[in-house]
């Protein structure tokens, strides 16, 4: 089975060169790899958390969609859609919210940061905190779990959200059966960061960005304005710490970069170095700029691509959501007669024969699964889906199964040699009690 990789792009602002080099270009390249099913979506529901200008949301959605298509994303090869075109996503958000503990969301980094800021400034802890901000991790989990993504490329600040998605998937699976794949966060330690006009990291917050599709002459003016040192023509110039050199390196081949480094050592004039940088960037960007401008002038073409992507996504989401609805009991009432016949005759709403009495509390359970890294894992969860033990990866299912068998038979304390491969996520007495119950079952 192909590996499913899901990426969300929040439509906020105009993309710049840093976005292109750090995220857009590598993601587009990865989407062309064999064995990969790429899902990319415009996270416009997420944008509403911080952006309350309808025109800006609409305009930014068009800009971001046109940018990705112009940069080479093939809507025929990937599943490229707008989040708000998939009504199953907010519906799944609610199902997940119903198995999500409030304490889990209390620990979310963005919410905690808002509370800490309010507290430090003497305001009510929840001042200005919307339910959109508070529920952000649940919506993100729904984005991921709707398509059972195996891998989700994120920055380190988003790892917690992937862990929360895994927790919610585990809780739902425990209550209603195995419906969700547990997603894995993918952190690219080699993500390129570009310097901006002032030498600091290119960022909208520093107002030092170079728009990705700035017109050719505007691009030249911006590049000519990059801050450099005062070394005159003929004086050797250092490549380390040079914004001009780092930007050039992000677009050039290894041979071009080596030649540019030699010219730095030979004392190239800053004006000539910047002109070379401009020409090298424009050589790559110009064809994409033409496509982008064409798409921006014809938004109906972009809309058609997104609607086609939504149809492709909903071909999966709609039947999957029907399965989830049935799993939680949101079923057609004409199936009730069959269920009652199988369970015993109901005498009235709220009462039933002995055969329909509530079942005993669910026992603890070991869950064994294989992750996208090809290794085999297991975890022990209690009746509410809370994790008690979590293993690291085993090379074979046999090794994982033998570890589970020993824990069931001998208990946690007696298997001290497994503690390096299995992590306790609860107090030892809770773990021992759960294992004892499994032995009694």
Characterize the structure shown.
It is a single chain. By secondary structure, this protein is an alpha/beta fold. 50% of the residues lie in helices and 10% in strands. The chain has 16 helices and nine strands. A four-stranded antiparallel beta sheet has the order 6-7-8-9, with helices on one face. Strands 1-2-3 form a three-stranded parallel beta sheet. Strands 4-5 form a two-stranded parallel ribbon. α1 links the parallel β1 and β2. α3 crosses α12. The longest helix has 30 residues. The radius of gyration is 27 Å and the shape is globular. About 4% of the residues have low confidence.
Give the percentage of residues in beta strands.
5-15%
- Compressed to H and E, one letter per element, the order equals EHEHHEHHHHEHEHHHHHHEEEHEH
**Rg, nearest Å:** 27 Å
Structural class: alpha/beta
Poorly predicted spans = 345-360
Q: Treating each run of at least 4 consecutive H or I residues as one helix, how many helices?
A: 16
Task: Give the fraction of residues assigned to helices.
Answer: 40-55%
Spatially, the strands of the biggest sheet line up as: 6-7-8-9
Total beta-strand segments: 9
**Separation of the first and last Cα atoms:** 36 Å
Biggest sheet features: 4 strands, antiparallel
Characterize the quaternary organization of these chains.
Answer: single chain
Q: What is the averaged pLDDT score?
A: 90
Which of globular, elongated, flat, extended, rod-shaped describes the shape? globular
């Amino acid at each position: 089975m192909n590996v499913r990789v899901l990426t969300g792009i929040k439509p906020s602002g105009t993309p710049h060169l840093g976005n292109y080099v750090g995220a857009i270009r590598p993601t587009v390249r990865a989407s062309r790899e064999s064995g990969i099913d790429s899902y990319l979506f415009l996270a416009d529901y997420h944008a509403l958390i911080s952006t309350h200008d309808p025109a800006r949301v609409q305009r930014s959605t068009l800009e971001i969609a046109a940018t990705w298509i112009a940069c080479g994303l093939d809507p025929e090869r990937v599943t490229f859609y707008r989040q708000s075109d998939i009504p199953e996503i907010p519906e799944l958000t609610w199902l997940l919210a119903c198995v999500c503990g409030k304490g889990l969301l209390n620990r979310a980094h963005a919410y905690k940061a808002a509370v800490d800021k309010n507290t430090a400034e003497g305001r009510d802890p929840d001042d200005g905190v919307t339910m959109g901000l508070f529920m952000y991790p649940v919506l993100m989990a729904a984005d991921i779990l709707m398509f059972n993504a195996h891998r989700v490329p994120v920055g380190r600040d988003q790892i917690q959200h992937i862990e929360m998605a895994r927790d919610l998937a585990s809780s739902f699976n425990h209550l209603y059966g195995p419906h969700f794949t547990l997603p894995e966060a993918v952190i690219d330690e080699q993500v390129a960061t570009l310097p901006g006009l002032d030498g600091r990291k290119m960022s909208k917050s520093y107002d030092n960005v170079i728009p990705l599709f700035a017109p050719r002459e505007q691009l030249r003016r911006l590049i000519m304005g990059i801050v450099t040192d005062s070394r005159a023509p003929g004086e050797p110039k250092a490549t380390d710490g040079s914004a001009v050199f780092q930007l050039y390196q992000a677009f050039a081949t290894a041979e071009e970069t080596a030649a540019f480094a030699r010219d730095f050592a030979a004392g190239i004039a800053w004006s000539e170095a910047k002109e070379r940088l401009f020409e090298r960037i424009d050589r790559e960007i110009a064809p994409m700029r033409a496509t982008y401008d064409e798409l921006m002038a014809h938004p109906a073409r972009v809309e058609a691509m997104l609607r086609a992507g939504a149809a492709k996504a909903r071909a999966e989401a709609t039947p999957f959501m029907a399965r989830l609805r049935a799993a939680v009991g949101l079923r057609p009432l004409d199936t009730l007669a069959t269920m009652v016949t199988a369970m015993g005759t109901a005498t009235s709403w709220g009462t039933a024969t002995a055969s329909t009495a509530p079942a005993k509390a669910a026992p603890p359970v070991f869950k064994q699964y294989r992750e996208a890294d090809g290794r085999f894992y297991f975890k022990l969860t209690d009746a509410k889906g809370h994790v008690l033990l979590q293993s690291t990866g085993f090379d074979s299912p046999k090794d994982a199964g033998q570890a589970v068998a020993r824990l069931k038979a001998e208990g946690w304390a007696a298997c001290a040699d497994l503690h390096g491969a299995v992590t306790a996520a609860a107090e030892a007495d809770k773990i021992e009690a759960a294992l004892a119950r499994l032995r009694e079952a």
